[in-house]
Write a structure and sequence with these properties.
Layout lengths: L13 H19 L1 H5 L3 H10 L6 H11 L5 H11 L15 H30 L1 H7 L11 H7 L3 H15 L15 H27 L2 H8 L4 H16 L3 H6 L1 H4 L1 H6 L5 H11 L2 H30 L1 H4 L16 H21 L30 H31 L2 H12 L3 H12 L3 H12 L1 H15 L2 H8 L4 H23 L1 H13 L11 H8 L8 H28 L1
Keywords: Cell membrane, Membrane, Transmembrane, Transmembrane helix, Transport
Membrane topology: Multi-pass membrane protein
InterPro entries: BP-dependent_transpt_permease, MetI-like, MetI-like_sf
């Protein structure tokens, strides 16, 4: 056995540490350049944030420049800020004049509490999604494949729309929990549900697809034959498959600390994501740099913790390169699979065709927020525009941009995940970085556009795929047949083409299809903030964002786009299952 594959050989840790330091440095440097990248006068922006004065005088701007020492340049400011950190001094806010560290500490504690609540909801939903597979597999009765429609529907639910519904129904109508503000543990229930349900469905769907292979391993058949209880078999199957899913916790759940801006706004929660966004919009550099550093440290800490947990679950077989390879058995596809796929395809085709025959830009102020009727099958929006027309005309643009973003992110994640020690730091940093922040940085260079927003999403969107690729490749390289292939003289290209890529690509594709609606919604959030698709261009995610304030008064304004997004997600997932069956 070569040294590279010897169990005694331990990879050096310095590349990962260097990658973390480099990624954090680059990010903080880019944040420091934000006011200069946007081309806007930082003094004017700060004055507007302080007093909402739209036309500050030249004397006022000059006084602020001198006070904040803006003429020194971005890197001088970054150096002063870094020099104060060892003393616990992150400076004072350019807007409020208050010390930065207490603001960031309070916001971080709120976000961490909300993240823990979302993590519990995520675990519960994921358990429910894969409960049937665990029950049948532990009793050797798993014969039929899953369509994946339940996880696809839940994963496609827009978090901000789900938050609005929960706040209205459970908070305002029924009065079960607070619908606004942060008053204690009871205030985290509704935000945790809004964040955890889609995340749990996504992670549960990934785990549900991996479990049949664990129940098909020889140890599971032997355990069942000797009469071990089903609970024991289920625990060992979960221990075998959870390490492959755990890296998804970093970009899916931990990223909620920085990426839950919309939910924090709806519930009026003073979290870290909202603080970072407000600081970026106001160009309040001390607050933004400190919040960004907190996100970087959180991502790195969570990445190290998750990696240690993975290694503890896999144990000695991983260290000794003795892991068996997971091979998914051939399961009978459910009879409803083709019908569900066909129904979704027909529904989207009818929607697009009927919508293209209508004018999406015609404004009729006399028909504002009209309920669905024969004249307007999906109703109208706040300007009286036909929603069916806007959905139909926005379908190709929405699906095309989202597919392009997902494909680029998945390929980038695959390539970076194949060099895990070099990319580990960048993956951990990118996983907690809000797409809104990258959108602001890129828009400062390219200007607001749909492709600028797409680039911003790709900059951070590759991290889930890189984390998944690195985890799966680590397990595959620790399998016995890889060591045997190397001993027989197999080269790197042969191992990559015949063993490593076939072990990674199916799971990566499934993950990408489950995350397709997320790409649509992130693009929508950037467009809603003026960083992406500009009005009045019809686009599904933007329709959800701009109609969200009318969800209670006119629910049809958001039900149409949300239903279309769910149908697209179900079609992608069921289509992939059919493709897998044909490939098998």
């Amino acid at each position: 056995m070569s040294v590279a594959h010897s169990p005694a050989a331990r990879p050096p840790r310095w590349p990962a540490a260097a990658g973390r330091a480099l990624a954090g440095t680059v990010l903080l440097g880019a944040v420091a350049l934000l006011p200069w990248l946007t081309g806007a006068d930082p003094a004017r922006t700060v004055l507007r944030a302080r007093s909402a004065d739209q036309n500050p005088t030249a004397e006022e701007r000059a006084a602020v420049r001198e006070q904040l020492r803006l003429d020194e340049g971005p890197f001088a400011h970054l150096g002063h800020w870094l020099g104060g950190l060892p003393r616990g001094d992150a400076g004072v806010s350019w807007v409020s004049g208050e010390p930065v560290m207490p603001q960031v500490g309070t916001a971080l504690s709120v976000s961490l509490t909300m993240m823990l609540g979302a993590l519990m909801v995520t675990a519960l939903v994921a358990a429910l999604v894969c409960a049937r597979t665990v029950f049948l597999g532990s009793r050797r009765r798993l014969r039929q494949d899953r369509t994946g429609t339940t996880s696809a529907v839940l994963a496609a639910l827009p978090k901000f729309l789900l938050a609005s519904v929960l706040a209205t129904v459970c908070g305002v109508w029924w009065g079960w929990f607070p619908s606004s503000g942060w008053e204690g543990p009871q205030s985290m229930v509704l935000p945790s549900l809004a964040l955890g349900i889609p995340s749990g469905a996504m992670l549960g769907g990934i785990l549900d697809q991996a479990l049949p292979a664990a129940f098909h391993e020889p140890w599971a058949r032997t355990a069942y034959a000797v009469g071990l209880p089903p609970g024991n078999i289920a625990r060992n199957a979960l221990r075998r498959t959870l390490p492959g899913m755990l890296p998804q916790l970093l970009p899916t759940v931990v990223a909620l600390v920085g990426g839950a801006v919309a939910v924090e706004k709806i519930f009026n929660i003073p979290g870290l994501g909202r603080l970072a966004l407000d600081a970026a919009v106001a160009q309040d550099l001390p607050v933004l740099q400190t919040a960004t550093l907190a996100l970087v440290l959180l991502g790195v800490s969570a990445g190290v913790l998750i990696r240690a947990l993975r290694h503890a679950l896999l144990g000695r077989p991983l260290r000794d390169a003795a892991l068996p390879t997971l091979h998914r058995p051939r399961l009978v596809p459910p009879r409803s699979l083709r019908w569900i796929t066909a129904a979704c395809a027909v529904a989207l085709l009818v929607l697009v065709t009927a919508g293209l025959l209508r004018d999406p830009l015609q404004v009729d102020t006399a028909a504002r927020l009209v309920a669905p009727s024969l004249e307007h099958p999906l109703g109208t929006d706040a300007l009286g525009r036909d929603l069916l027309a806007r959905l139909g005309h926005g379908a190709l643009r929405t699906a095309g941009v989202a597919l392009a973003v997902t494909a680029v992110s998945a390929v980038t994640g695959l390539l970076l995940g194949m060099a895990p020690r070099a990319s580990a730091g960048a993956t951990e940093v990118a996983s907690t970085l809000p797409a809104v922040l990258t959108g602001l940085l890129i828009a400062g260079v390219t200007g607001p556009s749909v492709w600028g927003a797409a680039i911003a999403v790709c900059v951070v969107g590759w991290s889930p795929y890189a984390a998944q690729t690195a985890a799966l490749l680590e397990q595959e390289r620790a399998s016995g047949h890889i060591a045997a292939s190397v001993a027989l003289g197999a080269g790197r290209l042969h191992l990559l083409r015949r063993h490593l890529l076939p072990a990674v690509l199916p799971a990566l594709l499934r993950n990408a299809l489950l995350r397709l609606p997320t790409a649509v919604l992130v693009l929508a959030s950037l467009g809603f903030l003026g960083l992406g698709e500009q009005p009045p261009t019809p686009e599904w995610g933007r329709l959800l964002s701009e109609n969200q304030p009318y969800a209670e008064l006119a629910p049809w304004t958001v039900l149409g786009p949300a239903a279309a997004l769910v149908v697209l997600s179900v079609l992608a997932v069921t289509g992939s299952v059919l493709g897998r069956r044909k490939g098998a």
